[in-house]
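REQUEST FORM: STRUCTURE PREDICTION
Request ID: SP-0412
Submitted by: Lab K.M.
Chain count: 1
Length (residues): 150
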Amino acid sequence: MQALLSAFGIDWRLLLINTINFGLLLFILWKFLYGPLMRMLDARRDKIAEGVINAENAAQHLHEIESTRGAKLSEAGKEADAVVAQARSAGSAKEREIISAGETAAASIVKDAESQAKELKAQAVAESKQEVAKLIVLGMEKMLAQKKSA
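STATUS: Completed
RESULT:
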């Protein structure tokens, strides 16, 4: 083997030293370059995977929020419809109450006006009777005065 190595011009001591240097260089590169680089790439890969999972969770959460929002909007719409219906019924009840009170007040006013009109009419008739009676008395006095003077 010595003859073969010397035929190619290879010194076994240099080959051994180069092999040790290469192994040492390989160990140093592995320890200080390849290992940290792989750890950094693994950390980055994990971070990206975590980001993807977080994005999926956020999308799912957004979907849940949207469905909840739709349900709450629907519920709020129903409640608003109920409140509007209740307000309408209360308004119509109040309207009937006000109309009834107005009709009662109007009927009372009409009755008062009719009674006042009757009183005024009776008073006017009484005054007319008094005036007619006075006129008759005056007329009779004039006729008696004319008969006495004639």
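NOTES: The mean pLDDT is 91.
Reviewed by: T.R.
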